[in-house]
Design a protein that fits this description.
single chain, 398 residues, alpha/beta, globular
Length: 398
């Protein structure tokens, strides 16, 4: 039912403007490009690196060491690390034109910009010990991203730049793993000058997104539908939508795109000429276990580690029969937050529950018309968010 409602909203929002429902033909060259190619296409320098986590995952990361017109400045630049959200990748930060993409804006402002990738996505699908064809490879959720991915990536950046601390920008799940890592790992927390949280997510008790629907499906049935490895958005839901509702190619691509179904679609605030870029790079993948973990968080209303299904298994992982809770009140990192009034995932009720628990909020802004994906792709994002982030980083670096 929720899926059909989403489709109805999409149809209503998109209308029949200029043959939108005709065959989708890629017009943007970045559709077939990698992150590196997208960066260099716009004339920015790029450096590729691989980070190996303690448990063997190999994460591809990118660095934009300076902007297009400030390479002459050889001094130490403030380091900024950008971490994407659920089902996405580093491409989120460079999918719009340079004057509308946060990574490019930060580089042009004189910062040393790094783009991270979480295990399981397009650029982080290797492990020293397990093949991505194995069940073992996909036995992770955002717990491991916070415990292993984030510390490994940040320590790599610190060693590479020679700077002891950096600025952290997270969107959606990127904020979630930040909340976990910076509240449970004091050494890592000291590396963070300021935490910039876009569409912050901890508890999701009141979400009206597809996660709410998935949370009502028994775990065994979720595994029958999606398997127990990579979360594949293409399944019988898509087949139904394609044949019964989404008969035209462009609308089908939107209907079957798990990212837009989870985060909502805002034709009013997106650069529709970039839609082919968004669709071609998303969803970038995650594990079924990660989706199950989010479903558990919806059901419980708590910010809690993954429940492995029995007291015995939980004890094996946590030395206790139930999953531990994450205490965001323990985080002391200065944090600036931006939330959306129309966000179905990081919805206002959950954000209102989160804010009083944070002990060092230096800035908070609610953007009434924003939904979940507007924070990374909205045409107004520079005015609403990015210019403020640039000013805060510049001010903190003086």
């Amino acid at each position: 039912m929720w899926l059909l409602l989403t489709v109805g909203i999409l149809i209503s929002a998109l209308g029949t403007a200029n043959g939108f429902f005709e065959k989708l033909t890629p017009e943007s060259p970045e559709v077939t490009m990698s992150t590196r190619e997208m960066i260099t296409y716009w004339g920015y320098p790029n450096e590729d690196y691989e980070v190996v986590t303690e448990d063997g995952y190999i994460l591809g990361i990118n660095r934009i060491p300076h902007g297009r017109n400030n390479s002459w400045n050889k001094g130490r630049r403030p380091v900024v690390f950008l971490q994407h959200g659920l089902l996405t990748s580093a491409t989120n930060w460079i999918s719009n034109l340079p004057d509308n993409s946060l990574a490019f804006i930060l580089a042009d402002a004189g910062f040393d910009v790094w783009l991270g990738n979480s295990r399981g996505n397009t650029y982080a699908r290797r492990n020293k010990y397990y093949s991505p064809d194995s069940v073992e490879f996909w036995a992770f959720s955002f717990d491991e991203m916070a415990k292993y991915d984030l510390p490994a990536t940040i320590e790599f950046i610190v060693k590479k730049t020679g700077q002891e601390s950096l600025h952290y920008v997270g969107h959606s799940q990127g904020t979630t793993i930040g909340f976990i890592a910076f509240s449970t790992n004091p050494k890592l927390a000291k590396r963070i000058k300021t935490f910039y949280a876009l569409a912050p997510v901890a508890t999701v008790k009141y979400t009206s997104s597809l996660l709410n629907t998935v949370s009502r499906i028994p775990t065994f049935l979720v595994k029958i539908i999606f398997g127990n490895k990579i979360f594949e958005p293409h399944n019988f839901f898509d087949d139904f939508l394609a044949t019964e509702v989404c008969s035209r190619q462009t609308l089908y691509k939107l209907c079957s795109n798990a990212l837009f179904i989870l985060g909502g679609f805002d034709s009013q605030n997106l650069n529709m000429s970039r839609l082919d870029v968004y669709l071609s790079h998303n969803p970038a993948g995650t594990s079924v276990q990660n989706v199950l973990h989010w479903s558990q968080v919806v059901r419980s209303g708590e910010f809690q580690a993954f429940d492995w299904g029995s007291p015995v298994q939980n004890t094996m992982h946590y030395n206790q029969p139930t999953p531990p809770f994450y205490d965001v009140t323990a985080m002391r990192v200065p944090i600036a937050l931006w939330s959306g009034g129309n966000d179905v995932l990081a919805d206002p009720q959950n954000v209102n529950l989160l804010l009083p628990k944070l002990s060092n909020v230096i800035y908070s802004k609610k953007i009434a018309l924003y939904n979940h994906l507007d924070f990374i792709w909205a045409v107004t994002a520079p005015q609403e968010i990015y210019n403020d982030i640039v000013s805060m980083i510049a001010g903190d670096s003086k």
